[in-house]
Specification:
Layout lengths: L16 E2 L5 E2 L4 E3 L3 E4 L2 H12 L4 H15 L9 E7 L7 E5 L9 H6 L17 H12 L4 H14 L1 E2 L2 H9 L1 H4 L3 H7 L12 E2 L2 H16 L5 H13 L2 H12 L6 H5 L4 E3 L2 E5 L2 E5 L7 H10 L4 H4 L4 H21 L10 H4 L2 H8 L11 E2 L19 E2 L25 E4 L5 E7 L46 E5 L2 E7 L6 H15 L7 H6 L3 E3 L15 E5 L4 H9 L3 E5 L9 E5 L6 E5 L6 E4 L1
Parallel strand pairs: 19-20
Antiparallel strand pairs: 1-2, 3-22, 4-14, 4-23, 5-6, 5-15, 6-9, 7-8, 10-11, 11-16, 12-13, 14-15, 16-17, 17-21, 18-19, 21-22
Helix pairs in contact: 1-2, 2-4, 2-5, 4-10, 5-9, 9-10, 13-15, 13-17, 13-18, 15-20
């Protein structure tokens, strides 16, 4: 019997269920035989779910979710932003990385910015890069999907054209950015009512210019269908990056003195490449490579593999201290060695060497917090890279006044946000993506296209000594970091989160909750996300102006006072914050190795949502 959903899907949430671990789980177990979806907005999750029940695979569903999210989640992500994707086609048996991160225009150089007295503060057109999300989405659809762009974009176009209920956090983001809108009339027209008043939460908002842009892409696909499915999808993509849509975007940018040319769009591509990976106690963990911050988690796992975390007990002072100290070491390497691989030869082999990890692990003092921020020497373990000519972290005491520059608030810019989509289908195909950028708070709407321009360029450094510096046609070292995990060579889990520099910390803790501490006799994935988290700020922030928060450590409030005092005694600058207040919203799906059922989970810290069938 074929299962047919109505055209509009309604999803509901349960409030509180009893957990066999003795804790109160906020959300019930979500399990199904066929597929699981978890994403950052109920409508995004429903869009993916709809495609799956209509016969699409995980990649079709993932692209549909990316498109809908780019309409309804624009406080977190828009279609002018970026989408970093990992795919696992079961038939191929390997994970592939799709880098939908936009690049800087050819005219963008450090000297140009300095000569024009500009910086990369994350709003407006100064930190703009070419939108990468749509190129990534259509690359995934073309190479691994089974449906047309018209099919997977239908719900996104409907929401943009006919409207959707504005969720409270999106309404608040609009309200908080009215001053920014004053500089850009297109933003006012896009986000406000015709009389200039605000939409209230729950009111229906329509985005007709965005609907028109997506429909033009559908029209291009229809016109090229005689050439075959892949050629037709390419035609839709080309209309955005090479055709009249691109011309309208570039014309607007040039009218506002942004250094973009048609070629910056026409020659852009989402890179398809091999991911970075490591094995942790039988789990093969895949991340985007060293153009991202993803290998931070891999380095931390390699270091932690040498410790008996289970015996320390979950969220004990010993456990938190060890995890945080491992992250500090990994972040020092990130801020030193990671950068766009087309411009920087990173010692990737050495950084992911187990021997190197053992050497770094010996630096962890179990009784004292490290105040140092010193990168290791992975070149000693790398067969290709033997020298390093860029800046290298070598700060003996980052807490001393004057060592790290002005005493600014750490992680400025991290309030701009991100979302995540995780999908496993009936065949074991996995789609995992972390989309971001083009936010309401900072993205300029490009004329009548409805596209808000990504400001991810704020993650560049205007410093020629840094590996992650701004260069023409380079991609910023992005914080977006999806995760796919195989277990004994079989598909196991897709996992990710928003949170800027904090992303790999949240993912690491969620992963360890599952593989080290999650009871195999009670498969509520929500519970693994509800447990309290910690957050170190011991790094240079990826967002402009790259402030640091050395030795600072945030603990969510339900961690016991005794643990707080113990960590303080070890020298951590500990700050207790509210329950569930660390800026993240982990979403994941996994295959239960015992039953083969799909289990989905979504973090209660926001309104992300999980479904299965």
């Amino acid at each position: 019997m074929k299962f047919i959903l109505p055209r509009m899907i309604t999803v509901t949430a349960a409030v509180c269920v009893f957990s066999l671990t003795g804790l109160a789980a906020e959300r019930p177990v979500v399990m199904g035989r066929n597929a699981g979806v978890s994403a950052g907005h109920p409508l995004t999750t429903a869009a993916a779910f709809e495609i799956l029940t209509r016969g699409g695979n995980a990649f079709d569903a993932g692209v549909a979710a990316l498109l809908v999210g780019g309409v309804v989640e624009q406080d977190l992500y828009s279609l002018g932003g970026e989408a970093l994707v990992l795919v696992y086609p079961r038939s191929a048996g390997k994970v592939t990385s799709v880098v939908g991160q936009g690049w800087a225009p050819k005219g963008a150089t450090i000297d140009w910015y300095l000569a024009h007295h500009k910086n990369l503060e994350g709003a407006g057109l100064d930190p703009a890069v070419v939108p990468g999300a749509l190129h990534a989405a259509l690359t995934v659809l073309e190479q691994w999907g089974s449906m047309s762009f018209e099919q997977v974009s239908a719900r996104a176009i409907e929401y943009a054209e006919q409207g959707f209920p504005l969720r409270p956090r999106t309404a608040l983001s609009i309200q908080n950015n009215l001053k920014f809108f004053e500089q850009w009339p297109e933003n006012q027209t896009y986000w406000l009512k015709p009389d200039g008043s605000l939409f209230r939460p729950g009111e229906t908002i329509k985005l007709p210019t965005l609907a028109h842009t997506l429909q033009r892409m559908v029209d291009a696909e229809r016109g090229a269908r005689r050439k075959g499915r892949k050629a037709a999808i390419a035609a839709a993509r080309d209309r955005f990056y090479k055709g009249d849509i691109a011309q309208e975007m570039v014309t607007f940018l040039q009218q506002h003195q942004a250094p973009f040319e048609r070629e910056d769009f026409a020659e852009f591509f989402a890179k398809v490449e091999q991911p970075a990976t490591t094995n942790y106690r039988g789990y093969q963990v895949y991340k985007h490579a060293f153009g991202s911050q993803g290998p931070v988690m891999l380095e931390a796992l390699n270091i932690l593999e040498g410790f008996d975390l289970k015996s320390m007990k979950h969220n004990s002072a010993d456990y938190i201290h060890t995890v945080v100290e491992a992250l500090k070491l990994a972040y020092a390497d990130r801020d030193t060695y990671y950068g766009d691989p087309l411009f920087v030869q990173t010692p990737a082999e050495g950084l992911l060497s187990k021997t190197y990890a053992s050497e770094r692990a010996r630096l962890i003092d179990p009784h004292h917090s490290s105040r140092a921020f010193i990168a290791g020497n992975p070149m000693a373990f790398d067969s290709k890279v033997k020298e390093w000519s860029y800046w290298k972290a070598n700060i003996a005491d980052g807490t001393k006044p004057g060592t790290i520059g002005p005493d600014a608030e750490p992680l400025r810019g991290a309030s701009r946000d991100t979302t995540h989509i995780a999908i496993i289908d009936k065949d074991g195909n996995i789609f995992d993506s972390t989309p971001s950028g083009g936010w309401i708070g900072g993205a300029v709407i490009l004329g009548k296209t409805g596209i808000g321009m990504s400001v991810r360029g704020e993650q560049f450094w205007l410093d020629k000594t840094r590996a992650a510096q701004l260069r023409p046609r380079s991609r910023p070292r992005y914080t977006l970091t999806p995760t796919i995990v195989l277990r004994d060579g079989q598909p196991f889990m897709a996992l990710g989160t928003p949170g800027g520099d904090n992303q790999d910390q949240t993912i690491l803790q969620a992963f360890l909750n599952i593989v080290e501490f999650w009871p195999d006799w009670y498969p509520n994935l929500h519970e693994a996300f509800e447990w309290p988290r910690v957050q170190t700020l011991h790094f240079f922030g990826s967002f402009w102006p790259h402030d640091a928060g050395f030795n600072k450590l945030n603990l969510e409030g339900t961690i016991p006072d005794a643990v707080f005092e113990d960590l303080k005694a070890r020298g951590h600058e500990v700050n207790k914050i509210k329950q569930w207040s660390i800026a993240s919203c982990a979403t994941a799906v996994l295959i239960d190795p015992a039953s083969g059922n799909r289990i989905a989970g979504a973090d209660p810290r926001r309104d992300c949502y999980a479904m299965a069938y």
